[in-house]
Amino acid sequence: MISVCMATYNGGKFIREQLESILSQLPPDAEIVIADDGSTDDTLQVVESLKEQRIRVLPAEKHLGVIYNYERALQASKGEFIFLADQDDIWLPGKVTKVLEALKESDLVTHDAWMLRPSESSWARSGKLSDIRAYKSGVVANWWKNTFTGCCMAFRRKVLDKALPFPKNLPMHDQWLGIIAEKYFKVKSIDEPLVEYRQHHANATHIGNSPAGVLQKIKWRVNLMKVLI
After folding, report:
1. Structure confidence at residue 218 (pLDDT)
2. Helices H / strands E in the chain, number of each
3. Are 3 and 29 in contact (CB under 8 A)?
4. For 2-228, CATH number?
5. How much is the pLDDT for 205?
6. pLDDT per residue over 117-134, tens digit each?
7. Are strands 187-198 and 90-91 parallel, antiparallel or unpaired?
8. Contact (CB, 8 A) for 69 and 157
């Protein structure tokens, strides 16, 4: 069974296109687990309007932020193969098939993405994610500088079992999952872009331009080291 885990917060503008791109690739017994973090726009109404039995929504209990809202979705998932999905991207045709094929010989798969940026009245590809954040293998490399991007990741349940519960004060959920996979399991990278990764001012992740200060980054690395040791 496949579980797609998504954390939502005021994503009504793009979520229909994203969900349709995912649902078209999923078998009947798959699930999409959506953990909402208290959206005040029409996100949940858009999701409900799809009338899709494969979607399961976890309403907000309190505002958790993207990392621990993702944890909530992951904890509720039931599948053996778990995909992470953002609320505003687009899955390209063949993503699920290609990732599942790669998971036959690995435990976590990461892949490339096309960067989508606003262009006049539409969106245009502006290069590959790997041009900015290329995957590097190893625990130390990803402790020092994260090269995992959540929307480009899928993994077997045993990776999730090892990663949960999330430690406190994580810099990002994708970094933690990636490091756990690097330390205990087998990771495979697919060079092909399999999603269109939309970049805009409301992104939870700022590729290549983190707003965190130097002191915060040091604290994150120290905390991660303590947990890993």
Report:
1. 82
2. 8, 9
3. no
4. 3.90.550.10
5. 58
6. 887 778 888 899 999 999
7. antiparallel
8. no
Q: List the chain residues with pLDDT less than 50.
A: none
Do residues 88 and 76 lie in contact, with contact meaning Cβ atoms separated by under 8 Å? no
- The beta strand positions in 86-167, using DSSP E, are 90-91, 108-119, 122-128, 153-156
Distance between CA 66 and CA 40 in Å, rounded? Answer: 15
Domain ranges in the chain?
Answer: 2-228
Phi, psi of 22 (to 5 degrees): -80, -50
Rounded CA-CA distance 172/148 in Å is 10
Reply yes or no: is the peptide bond before residue 171 cis, omega within 30 of 0: no
The token duo for 131 is 């041009």
Amino acid identity of 35?
Answer: A
Residues 6+ apart with CB under 8 A from 215: none
Q: Which residue's entry shows tokens 């932020």?
A: 65
Count of residues making up the chain: 229
What does pTM read for this prediction? 0.90
CA dist., res. 143 & res. 114, Å (int): 25
